[in-house]
Amino acid sequence: LACSKTKSDSVYKALSRMRFERFTHVAVQSLHIIPGREYDAVGSDCAHAAAQLGMNIQTGPPLLFSPEGQESSIMPVAELMIRHIPASRASDEPVVYMAHGTRNECAALYASLAGVVHAMDPLVFVAAMIRNNAEAPGTHDPAVPDDDLEALLPLLRSCTPPGRQVWLLPMLSLVGSHAIKDMAGDHETSWKKRIMEAGLPCTAELKGLADDPSFVSLWLDRVDASLKKLYAPT
C-alpha cells in the first residue's frame, strides 16, 4: 500500500471511524503468522479503542498460536501447507517455505510447525529469514547470511535428484517486498538466487497464504468464533 501511495487506516483509526458510524461490537482478525510485536500492537490498539471509545472488541489469534490448556493451531496449519503446494511439484522435489522469523520465544512456533510439516512430507521445509540464535548483537559475521537457508542449502543439494528443482513458497499472508525481493528477486542475496548459485534449479511461487481459499476459511472460522464471544451471555 505504501509503495502504491494508497492511504490506509491504522487499526485505531479504523475503529474510531466505526465508532463514529455507531458500531459498538467489532471483531478484529489479524493476518499475522505469529503473536509477535506487530500482532501485540494490534491488540494494544484494540484495547485502547475499547477503553477510550466504549466499544466491545474481540481480537482473533494469529495463524500460529499455542495457548496454554487449549488445542494448538499447528496441526491444521501444517495440513493446509501441504495442500497449498502446487500440484505441478513432483513428489521427489524439495519445497522450502520462507517465513519471516523472529528472535523471541515465538520462534518455537516456527520450529514446531517445521517438525510437523516435515513429518507429513520429509521434503518440505520451513526456514526463516531471521534466524533464532544466541549470538550477541554485533558478533555475527556480516559476510554470512543470518538466516535458516544457509544451513539448509547442503541438505537441499543432497536431496534434490538430477533433473529436479527446488520449490520456494512464501510462509507469508500476502505477497509483498519480502516475497518479491527477498525470496524471488534477481539480486544475489535473494533465496532463489542463492539456491540457483548452489547449482539447483528453483521455482518461486508468488502466492501468499491469503490467496488460498483454505487459509481464508480458517481465518473466517476465527472471525466467527470472535463474533460468538462478542454476543455471548455474561
What's the arrangement of strands in the largest beta sheet? Answer: 4-3-5-6
Number of strands: 6
Strand content: 5-15%
The general outline is elongated
Structural classification = alpha/beta
| CATH topology group of the largest domain | Rossmann fold
The first-level CATH class name of the largest domain: Alpha Beta
Number of domains: 2
N→C terminal distance: 40 Å
What would you say about this model in short?
The chain is α/β, with parallel strands linked by helices and 234 residues long.
What does this molecule look like?
- It is a single chain.
- The chain is of the alpha/beta class.
- It has two domains: 11-67 and 214-230, 3-Layer(aba) Sandwich (Rossmann fold); 74-211, Rossmann fold, CATH 3.40.50.1400.
- Helix content is 41%, strand content 14%.
- The protein is built from eight helices and six strands.
- It has helices spanning 11-20, 37-53, 74-84, 107-120, 148-159, 177-183, 191-197, 213-230, and strands spanning 25-29, 56-60, 95-101, 124-130, 166-170, 202-204.
- Strands 4-3-5-6 form a four-stranded parallel β-sheet, sandwiched between helices.
- Strand 3 (95-101), helix 4 and strand 4 (124-130) form a beta-alpha-beta unit.
- Helix 3 packs across helix 4 (107-120).
- Residues 134-140 have low confidence and may be disordered.
